[in-house]
Design goal:
single chain, 612 residues, alpha+beta, 4-stranded antiparallel beta sheet, 9 helices, 37 strands, globular
Length: 612
């Protein structure tokens, strides 16, 4: 087995060799939104049960909750004039979202976008005032300017798979993102005439998913992998459209994950995704091109945002034994500190840090993953955890479920099979269409590797996953009968025909580039659907789904449960009320984790007793 030799950044805690009880996971703080003057920070936290809005004085450290209702909040932003907070809300936890605004003291709360069957997202604010750049989506995308004070709405553009990214300060031009997953491009919109033009040449490869106007409105900066395997930052000169983009920042050893520009457009915070998924942070001066590294306060960073005056950078940091929490960075010195004064206590002292492991797929493609090992010598009962997306990535963040399984003596291997992000353009596209057979085979390759390496005991392998990972669990069980002893599929697709018929229209349209067209590729999708081969599934399976899920509809799990019941295959079917695709209530998320851990430890142990 190829295990990387560097020690985990988070020290591995000693633990007894016998199973032990596990405390509930610590709550998370995330999505910081600093006030324009940098004196206060609003953020989201699930400390009260579901994600809500809290505000904290930067120098006081005692958060105060704002009255934002009972529905979970997904995103948050403070207006540049300091008068409004904008909240993206998910009623019933469902994928359809609404945009609400309120004063920073909690008053004058009201909905301004996402009415009816439309879903609303916030791109940002125009400088100086209360105008928001908003996208509403149903069958098509709609780019809007919405006034937080009056609720007045102005439609800028409409189209399929359209997202508004930015608007110039004078409102004369807008930057749009178009296209399906992994094949997106940018368009420049002349607001007065409605004329659009594509900014980057259509090379037939790569995707551009982030962009904004430069400070003078004559350039666009974009994160793209259209010109290199690993995403980089480029500048497009709008006054010289014939000129190729200028590369501003890129690395041969890391993918540019996200860029956050300052309000004046003079500099940006760059989050880099190094091999395996650890984060690095740098600050880039867009004028001089000088970039300097800043010490990362955690292994995985996100949610970076500047205060309007540029004197404060907020972000979130997490690690294997530390939940997400908000940190403050001084851009001038690079010094960082936690927002909350009690952050030192926000640690899972019973947790273990994982090791980064390299292996090969059956066709020779390099794969990797994170291995969480129980105490004592192996082999152990082992669970393979498959992340969602598929354009997501398994990273060394805070995973209470993994720690709960390890505490019960079950090793966890969390791989990044083909289709995962963070490893370059070709890798993320390697599972498109018929390439999905390779991704399914990667799961089997991981299982075989773990047994050969002495990590897993034959007959005591389980697999678990959510969303696309839930699909991979079902696909692996029906394609490789006898390899796994049990599975847990959470919110997973079981039949591509019923998925495309039942999901949100914009989700279906964007998914065609990854999965295939439900009409043109009907035969391929039928064969890739676990329900087509469900008679091969003969091991205990737990199915978990949110009742309000309209991304992967709850019927995807229900039809598997019905088929297994008809054949007498042991299974469980847990439906969580008030949840959509992501389990946002802490109680429901903990119920899913507890059920998953109990199912795997029970059935892997039962398998061991049968074998010997």
């Amino acid at each position: 087995m190829s295990v990387r030799t560097e020690a985990p950044r988070t020290a591995r805690r000693a633990r007894p060799a016998i199973p032990r009880p596990v405390s509930p996971p610590v709550g998370a703080d995330f999505a910081p939104a600093p006030s324009p003057d940098g004196r206060r920070v609003a953020f989201l936290s699930d400390r009260a049960g579901t994600p809500g809005v809290w505000v904290c004085e930067v120098d006081a450290g005692t958060p105060v909750a704002l009255p934002v209702g009972d529905e979970p909040v997904l995103a948050l932003s403070w207006s540049p004039d300091g008068q409004w907070l904008a909240c993206v809300v998910a009623p019933g936890g469902a994928p359809r979202t609404e945009l609400w605004v309120l004063r920073p003291d909690g008053t004058r709360r009201r909905q301004v976008a996402g009415f009816g069957r439309r879903s609303a997202t916030l791109a940002g604010w125009l400088p100086g005032g209360a105008l928001m750049a908003v996208t509403e989506t149903d069958a098509h995308g709609r780019a809007l300017l919405v006034d937080a004070a009056t609720g007045h709405r102005r439609v800028l553009a409409e189209g399929e798979l359209l997202t508004l990214l930015d608007v110039t300060a004078d409102g004369g031009a807008a930057l749009l993102r178009r296209g399906p997953r992994n094949a997106r491009w940018l368009e420049l919109l002349d607001v007065a005439t409605g004329v659009r033009r594509r900014l980057l040449p259509d090379s037939g490869r790569g995707s551009t998913d982030q962009g904004w106007f430069g400070p003078d409105g004559t350039s666009v900066l974009a994160r793209t992998d259209a010109y290199s395997e690993l995403a980089a930052l480029v500048r497009v000169d709008l006054t010289r459209p014939e000129q190729p983009p200028t590369r501003l920042a890129g690395r041969p050893d890391a993918e540019l994950e996200h860029v956050t520009p300052s309000a004046d457009g003079q500099r940006g915070a760059l989050l880099w995704n190094t091999y395996g998924g650890r984060s690095e942070l740098s600050l880039l001066d867009f004028t001089s091109g000088v970039q300097r590294a800043v010490a990362a306060p955690g292994e995985v960073l996100g949610d970076a945002v500047f205060a309007a005056d540029g004197g404060l950078l907020c972000l979130t940091a997490q690690g294997p034994v530390r939940p997400r929490e908000v940190w403050l960075v001084d851009p001038s010195t690079g010094a960082s500190r936690p927002l909350r004064s009690d952050t030192a206590a926000r640690t899972d002292d019973a947790g273990v840090a994982p090791y980064l492991v390299d292996l090969r797929a059956r066709d020779g493609l390099p794969l990797s993953g994170w291995l969480y090992r129980p105490a004592g010598p192996g082999p152990w009962p082992t669970a393979i955890s498959l992340h969602g997306g598929p354009e997501a990535q398994e990273r060394p963040g805070y995973h209470p479920l993994f720690q709960a399984l390890v505490a019960q003596g079950v090793a966890v291997f969390a791989p990044n099979v083909r289709g995962s992000s963070g490893f370059g353009r070709s890798f993320v596209a390697a599972d498109n269409l018929a390439g999905r057979y390779g991704a399914i085979a990667d799961v089997a390759a991981c299982a075989e590797f773990l047994v050969d390496a002495g990590v897993a005991r034959p007959g005591q392998l389980g697999c678990l996953g959510r969303s696309y990972g839930g699909y991979l669990v079902l696909a692996a069980l029906v394609n490789f009968p006898g390899l796994f002893a049990a599975g847990v599929a959470e919110c997973g697709i079981s039949d591509f025909h019923t998925f495309f018929a039942g999901t949100e229209p914009w989700i279906a349209a964007a998914a065609v580039s990854k999965y295939g067209d439900p009409r043109r590729d009907a035969d391929l999708l039928r064969d890739l659907s676990p329900m087509t081969h469900i008679d091969r599934l003969d091991v205990p399976v737990l199915l978990i789904h949110g009742a309000n899920d309209t991304n992967v509809p709850a019927g995807e799990s229900a039809q598997v449960a019905e088929a297994l019941a008809a054949r007498g295959v042991p299974h469980g079917h847990l439906v969580l009320a008030g949840e959509g695709h992501d389990f946002l209530s802490r109680a429901n998320a903990e119920a899913a984790r507890t059920a998953t851990a109990a199912w795997l430890t029970r059935h892997l142990a039962a398998t061991a007793s049968v074998l010997g």
